[in-house]
């Protein structure tokens, strides 16, 4: 799912405005109809912004997803407080990934929408500027967001969209702070431990000043801490340039792969053709 038809937006917005001081929820079905579902969380004080109530969160009955599994296109819910973001939360992203179903958010106060599909190629489908995943522009300009649009997201999307090669979604820590703490302790090494199981082969270890790169090579780097944790993809050979997604506050970009990055490189990986 990479767009929200106007009639679906209208149906969700009308339902949300019928209950202006709570989060409403429901399903978008495969026939493009909208099915409101009761938010079973208890009602609370409208002024209490911290309680787990239908004013601040949503929960559908436990039997809904299993019963409707074959008919569901997406799950939607709403925000209405000015203090609530007009973007899906970290909790929403984890939930969507866990059930493998797109999540749609409508913010009633701001009249803004967000959509994330856990199997989609673009992490910000409502804001993408290029629709063709065979073009490099498709992968640049993504706002950084932990577990939604980070360097692993970019690697997986590029290899799937550009090359038709699937790389699994490694298990992330719930928050970036926990990830940084594991890096400091040297207990996170998922790239090195998992890339070899993704139809990829390590073709070089160490810095790369004299390495004969090929297009689409994966460059695994250590920018801080004790373990390699950042990836870039070689997208130009003369001069060398990488596609990567560096950190919060930055957009995914094509950047020079110069001496500093070569020194930070721990290994190079590519598709195993054997």
Overall description:
The protein is α+β, with helices and mostly antiparallel strands. The protein has two domains: 6-116, 3-Layer(aba) Sandwich (Cytidine Deaminase, domain 2), CATH 3.40.140; 130-271, endopeptidase domain like (from Nostoc punctiforme) (endopeptidase fold (from Nostoc punctiforme), Alpha-Beta Complex), CATH 3.90.1720.10. The protein contains seven helices and eleven strands. The protein has helices at residues 6-18, 64-68, 90-99, 151-163, 176-185, 190-194, 259-264, and strands at 25-29, 34-37, 72-79, 103-107, 112-116, 200-205, 218-221, 230-236, 241-244, 253-256, 265-271. A six-stranded antiparallel sheet has the order 6-11-7-8-9-10. β4 (103-107) and β5 form a beta hairpin.
